[in-house]
Amino acid sequence: MQIVPSPSLTNLVRHFLIIETDLTQRLRIFSDGNTGIVFNYGDPLLHENPLNGEKSLLPQSFLYGQLDQYQHVLSTGKVRLLAVVLHSQSLSAILSIPASELKNQLLDLKYFFGNDAENIPEKIFAADHVAEKCAVVEHFLIQQVQNTYIEKSVAGRAVQLIHQHHGNLPVSQLMNELQVGERTLQRIFDAQIGLSPKRYSGVIRMQKFLKLLRKTSPGAHIVDPVFECGFYDHAHLIREMKQLSGITPRQYLGQKMLAANFFQIPA
Question: Residue limits of the HTH araC/xylS-type domain (predicted)?
């Protein structure tokens, strides 16, 4: 369930997302081009290290940077999450930390906001209705980010152009539109986005394809969305999608989805 934030937060927050399920399961999250903050008001979650498979307890409140590789989360019981889905530039602006340093990181919110973040999950759990749960988080965010302002920068214009072209604007044309060189553009994306311009464009292109795919009738051919989204052929699409999410388009359609980029992995 997606909830639109209050007007005072729309420059930072894309939407709130409520995820609730009672099945103990292994979950996978992959990049949608956004960063975020997650409040867990259910049973504990474990994070599986993508390099060595080691499992560690996730904090009740954590933030995540841009994901360049998919991540695995293991539920131990009831999944009750309230996610604050942020705009691409928001997290680095809020924390005053280069976005590249947050890439592929899931970090305890208390590291950045101290004890103010500690009791938020309990307050969310105690709230009876979705609107009340979101109000708890909005109150916390407004207190913490009231002085945060995302200036109309080159990065903001770049993100806008990439979204307008659904990820199909060549980097060379992007540089021409912005009147910046390749190294300057890369430095800007490292500082404010967390992915390279090419990688970020690829993520946005894939999200456009997945949006169309979800509207496809069961058993229908997916050729039209492949070319409409700028992939050379079906093999190109599968290669890009498996790199991003670890699965093919057909497998994606068969998953139990908790969000567009968050799904259950069958045992």
Answer: 156-255
